[in-house]
Amino acid sequence: MGLMRRRAVLAAALPAALGLFLACRSRPAPPPPPPIRLRLVAVGDILMHQDVKLAAEQAPQGFPALWSDLVPLFQGADLAFGNLETPVAPATGRPGIPFQFNAPAALPAALRASGFTVLSTANNHAFDQGPKGVRETLDRLRAERLVAIGSGEDRPRAEELQILERQGLKVAFLGFTDLFNLDLNRKATEPWVRPLDLEPALAAVREARSRADLVVVSVHWGNEYQRQPTKRQRDIAKLLVGAGCDLLLGHHPHVLQPAELVEADGRKALVAYSLGNFISNQDRMYRADLFPVAGGDNRDGAALQAVFEQRRDASGNPRMVLAETSFEPLWTENNWGVPSARREIRVIRVAAAEARVRAEVEALSVPQGGPEAPARRAALLERQEYLRTLILRRRRIAETLGEAFVAR
After folding, report:
1. CATH code of 118's domain
2. Which helix (H) or strand (E) holds 176?
3. SS3 306
């Protein structure tokens, strides 16, 4: 090829090569992958009063019908937690009586089908059916692939660190109780419920911190029916946070208590001192038009939604941080004293119920004559009173937990 021809070929190829080079340089870099996020939902005491069990027996779908509003929330979370404040020991225990609970065999499968994954079994009712009841409860939970924390067939298994993997992250759970109705911890080789002994508890949290990306601690503590935590609760919470706890889930008072962000030893964690009741038959006689607002506190609940996100610290190391926090108000509907073909107890999401009832009130407020007018008027008054109840409960829950935490 002659010199002139080679120059012509190069001249023709140069613009194309230059264009390709510029196109490659101007192409934007791919965006970084989104951070890893983990969503945890937690509720309070799952109580098996006789009327709760009766409501489940009479509901077409059984136990899940009692909290069907919450099932999408539980199933949509990476982890869903509750305090199982009852043995499940129909084979080895006695029928439940007031203050000594026992749940039917159907409960664990219903909880699992509803989306629960982790249950605290360390509480003051753990020994209601004796050591055999502890063992049977654990067997039944394990059969449904539910993780129990805070009790075991023996002491080593009660104190074994439970680590679950979600979204490629290791989440450690520990459970303790500060209270016993009947403490049957006798021998380390027999069924054991883990007490809140402070120094061993702090050591366990430190170990969990070294082995997991996220540490969740469940504590059964506090004074029943008191809407404020004790100084002791606050002091212990700070120590647990300093030891490595990322999220502290409290229960036992049967009413809600405040939530707060606690800082200790350079760490920050969310502490929910009491999540209140999830489902129960307490305060069954409450009516907003007859009782002071405090008369319904046992029927208030909250679903904590905590979203953790993996971020880089100043040294470039990955660490989990609390990215989003909210508590959704819950209310237990209870038809005690109302003539009905069946007993009904049901946990509802207050915001959704309030929106629905407002729409019903608006529809019933449209003037209409005819023979149906008196019935419509009665229905309107009933719906207006129920709307008032929902508004009172929502405000009470927000006042207790803290306005900043309650989902609007």
Report:
1. 3.60.21.10
2. strand 169-177
3. strand
pLDDT at 354 over 70: yes
Amino acid sitting at position 287: R
The model's pTM is 0.90
For residue 232, being part of any structural domain is answered with yes
Domain presence at residue 11:
no
Kindly state whether residue 341 falls inside one of the protein's structural domains: no
The answer to whether the CB of 323 falls within 8 A of the CB of 37 is yes
Q: Which of 62-76, 114-128, 251-265, 328-342 has the lowest mean pLDDT?
A: 328-342
Q: Which candidate, 329, 337, 173, 349, places its Cα nearest to that of 259?
A: 329
Cα-Cα end-to-end distance for the chain:
79
Cβ–Cβ < 8 Å for 335, 343: yes
Q: What is the pairing mode between strands 277-279 and 259-264? A: unpaired
- In this structure, are residues 105 and 137 in contact, taking their beta carbons and an 8 Å threshold? no
User: Which amino acid type is present at position 274?
Assistant: S
Task: Specify whether 281 is located in the same domain as 390.
Answer: no
**% of the chain residues with pLDDT over 90:** 83
282-331: pLDDT as tens digits: 999 999 999 999 999 999 999 999 999 998 887 778 888 999 999 999 99
User: How many domains does the chain contain in total?
Assistant: 2
Helices (H), 172-256: 198-211, 231-243
Q: What is the pLDDT of residues 333-349, one digit of tens each?
A: 999 998 877 999 999 99
Residues with Cβ within 8 Å of residue 336, at least 6 apart in sequence: 51, 281, 284, 285
Q: Classify residue 79: in a domain, yes or no.
A: yes
Residues 389 and 284 in one domain: no
Containing domain of residue 65, as a range?
37-334
- At residue 144, does pLDDT exceed 90? yes
Phi, psi (5° rounding) for residue 395?
A: -65, -40
pLDDT band at 375 (very low <50, low <70, confident <90, very high): confident
